Amino acid sequence: MSKISLIIKREYTTRVMKKSFILLTFLTPVLLVGMISLIVYLGSIKDDKIKNIVVIDKTGMYKEVLKSNESYHFQFTDSSIDELKQQDRKESEFAALLYIGNDLSKDSSAAVMYSDKQINLELKSYVAGLLNKYTEQQKLAAYNIPNLKQMVEKSRTDINLKTIKWGEDGKEKEGSAELALIIGMITAFVIYMFIVIYGAQVMSGVVQEKTNRIVEVIISSVKPFELMMGKIIGIALVGLTQFLMWVVLSAAIMFGVSSAVSKGVDPASFEKMQNMSQISMQTSSTIPSDAATAKLQEVMTAINGLDFVQIITLFIIYFLGGYLLYASLFAAIGSAVDNETDTQQFSFPIMIPIMFAIYAGIFSAENPDGPLAFWCSMIPFTSPIVMMVRLPFDVPFWQISLSIGILILSFIGTTWMAGKIYRTGILMYGKKVSWKEMWKWLRY
Amino acid sequence: MPLLEVHNVVKQYAGHRALDGVSLEVPENSIYGLLGPNGAGKTTLIRIINRITAPDSGDVLLNGQKLTADLVQQIGYLPEERGLYKKMKIGEQALYLAQLKGMSKNDALKALKYWFEKFEIQAWWNKKVEELSKGMAQKVQFITTILHEPKLLIFDEPFSGFDPVNADLLKREILELRDKGATIIFSTHNMGTVEDLCENISLVNKSQIVLQGNVADIRASHATNTYKIKTRQEVRMDGFDVLEEKNANGFFESIVKKDLADSNNFLLQKLMQQTEIFSFEEILPTMNDIFIRTVTGTIN
After folding, report:
1. What is the ipTM metric for this complex?
2. Helix B134-146 to helix B90-100 angle, to the nearest 10 degrees?
3. pLDDT tens digit string along A88-126?
């Protein structure tokens, strides 16, 4: 076995066998899926307690309009606000008080809701929806045009603007800007995270070898450059392993959870749930019910429209390129300092472009073909992150290949530079290092 | 032919010259001492021999061949700053270092088994370095240095930090390795071990070699022409000086000094004329004396 592969093997196995690595690799997807399921679960729980809403209707017009449902029960009363205020509210057990002082078609702000606690949005929109609809009809009726109600009903539309991209071969692809944005941001953020986490691992690995004083023993057998590259490549493989494990585990857990859920729910109650949601949609919003399914279909076709093979391939290329670029700089810094605490002062200037890249990425998402997006996806220190954001918006091929080319040349350059600093740095002890000093080592 | 030749090596660092025209020859199957005060350039020279740093000019030849990366495999090097991976198991670590030196896994395992048995440390195989004492770690480091049976062994300050028991063990192992055919270079401050072990030395001071050669010859050449004698009666000056004299249990013990030109026999004849001689011994300077005299002499 060649020496560099021995080093890669050691760096890889010692890290992958660590308890913390195994724990993090297996727990993260569980936590992630767990959190998502928790959010979904909590959102799906309905407050099954019926809430009483006391209504003081001065006009007497709205008794028929405010219909009680499973959650809200409307009680009409003749008492005045002040009387209700005086009551011991703990005894009275009403969640809110709705006061309608005037005809809403004349005075749209005549309805007020009082409550001890902040009124939740669902209740507010439910009541407002009912009142709105009734008032609308009232106003329409006031025009005295026959069949006006039906005409309006018919003219109600929801424009569903499809976005279709023209592929180079003229093939039409349906796209979704929102989805592209989400995928771009996620992949960019993962790259950012991996560069920071594994770059820091490279740095602390180098510092440890130096403080352990094992480095001189090793470089009497291998070249310093081989030791550095072995470490960088070994840790890159650790990162890729973790990433792939996360993808596979998340997918497996998602699949497991979703199949368990669909088995657990009996079809009858599922149907009931669907009916309920349709009813509430009709009452509370103006979107026709089949628009929701259309929306879902749109997302599905948009997902199918994305070129996942391209995204994953380029993700791996940009991850490796960006990682190699930064890891070599982290290695150089690790070699120059004597202990872990000194690394902070030197790693700060390296962290700045990474942080800048994530902000540039966020702004590029708004205008993926703008000058900021273009230049930041060419500059190698930001391109791995910014290009990932732009990628789902179909970047021209020449830009991708130019950006990758620049990235490759740059990491060859930084690795070469880092190798020179590293070679001198790892054998220096007890010397306060400055940037000037490191510049000198570069030219030895 | 010498095993290792260093020809006129110069190494310049920003601000100072670490080595200035250093040359030396290490005969095969001998023990060679590299002496010198701290900062003289010993470690730089050793690093150049190990190809860890490159000289600005000059050559290093092993067996008459210019030293290449492949030939460095034939060197075993125990640096002054030595350590091990703290979290790694001893056995794995020794195996890893041996493979880095180019040994195959099987050969390395066999050799490790032999040495672990010899040092009676088989029980440590699955322990981590952080569980071991410093002395224990030193044994492991020594084994990893010599495991691949290098022709040339270089120990940088091997005795620093070793407890007396381990230092003695190390000394015996060094002699045994020499008897088995290895050539050994070590740098040290400990002049006692130089007299015990080394056949030849180089004394480096301020980036240059100020003294070089066979230990016995060096000591002889630094002779002060003084002798320790034991006689029945007091001795008087007669063509020689009496530096010290004392009466001990009916004998007189004196230190006398003859002229450089006179022979030992001349001194003996003069003494015999005066009294009966019970013992006669030349006082040779210790390497420690020579070291201090040479180093401070060059400073002045």
Report:
1. 0.78
2. 30
3. 655 556 778 888 888 888 888 888 888 877 777 778 888
Residue A25 lies inside a defined structural domain of this protein: no
Interface residues of chain B, partner chain A, Cβ below 8 Å: 14, 47, 50, 52-53, 69, 72-73, 75, 77-79, 81-88, 96-97, 99-102, 141, 144
Question: Which pTM was predicted?
Answer: 0.72
pLDDT digit string, tens, across residues B81-103: 778 888 889 999 999 999 998 89
* Domains of chain A: total: 2
Query: What's the pLDDT tens digit per position in A163-211?
Result: 666 655 655 555 566 777 788 888 888 899 889 999 999 999 999 888 8
CA distance A126 to A45: 18
Question: Domain ends where: A155, A188, A209?
Answer: A155
| CA–CA min distance A427, chain B (Å) | 9
Q: How far apart are CA A17 and CA B57, in angstroms?
A: 46
CATH number of the domain residue A107 falls in: 3.40.190.10
Which of A217, A428, A429 to mutate to test binding with chain B, by most B CBs within 10 Å of its CB? A217
A169 SS3 class: coil
Select from A214, A219, A220 the Cβ nearest to the Cβ of B85.
A214
Q: Which residues on adjacent β-strands are paired with residue B160? A: none
- CA distances, B282 to each of B114, B258, B273 (Å): 46, 11, 20
Tell me the residue range of the domain where A83 lies: 51-155
